[in-house]
Amino acid sequence: MTPDKEARLPSIPLRGSNQTTVRGANERLVLHLVRQHGTMTKADATRATGLSPNALSVIFRSLEEDGFLLRCEPIRGRIGQPSTPMRLNPDARFHIGLKIGRSSFDMIVADFVGGVRARRTSRHGYPTPDATADFLRREVPGLLADAGLPAGSIAGSHVAMPSELWHWTEDFGAPAAEMTAWQTFAVEDLSALLPGPVTAENDGTAACRAELVFGPGVRHLDTIYFFVGTFIGGGIVLNGSVFSGRRGNSGGLGPLRVPDEAGGNRLVDHASLAVLKRMLRDAGHDHVEIPDETDDWDRLEPVLGQWVIRAARSLAHAIVSSLAVIDFEGVIIDGALPPAIRTRLLDEVQAHIRKIDLQGVALPDIEEGHLGQIARALGAAARPISASYMVDGNAVLQGG
Fold it and tell me: Looking at the domain 217-369, which fold is it?
């Protein structure tokens, strides 16, 4: 295992079986562990899984022949034969991830380890199904050309989008009559425009999944994840795996109630970029559009500073409320924000949460996310990898 991966997510006990009838499950287990640790030798895998050395030799050989694993340089200088760590092959699978957002489209080609091979983005006043189709017709050929990949090499295309996109239209200036078209939208409507099978998932859940699957590591088995976008959302990690819930909306954190704030009693009423945009407009600011995370946000001052304090105060209350339901060990805050603003928001959250009565709850570790604006598109591409090549800790504990 590589030293930089040793601090990654602590594992629930994941054991394999030496019966040949569960070869597929064992291969998934090995791929999960290699992804979690960066590299892994057969000896490492033997200790981690309880599988026999012979069974693991067969699995490693099979995964290498199928193109999922690559050999690293042998480790020499130890007694006996040198051991050879294995790592994931980035070229094993390619997926398209598409984020349909309230203010922009973001589409990527991601490889098996989360490398972004190509990306296309487009801003809009509000999204419609027709506008989405136009974006795909215009950009998919160039996206594949930029990635240097034919359409047939894409294993699937996956969409991250807000649930019930037709709601809250007044909060970001979209005409309700046009947005109702989303009520009859089905992801299958995009299958003629995207290569491979097409699936969809809530965008907050997708961003959380990207942090877990492709980020540098989620340190706690139970974590709540906040993503500050046009409207705030997020996701839930339980037992080391994303928990999306029966209807796929777990971590839809916007409706969380927060006290003592003028302008609304929901988290979404304060810790959302739509609120910042409205504050800029009300202040007569010259620039009422929220810039990309790579742009200079200093020109949004002093309104930006006022929003950071307001958003952080509401996030602190929301975090404490969530702890009363699940004893989260970790909190991650990310968003379509420049890293410096994300750090500033995190510092304010930590300052405010220390002022709240924490009797009955344990203060979790509060950390920054790592992926920013691209997290939702990257999380869309992570969904099939999570489903097919990783172990679901919740299913393991439930006997699934």
Answer: Nucleotidyltransferase; domain 5 (3.30.420)
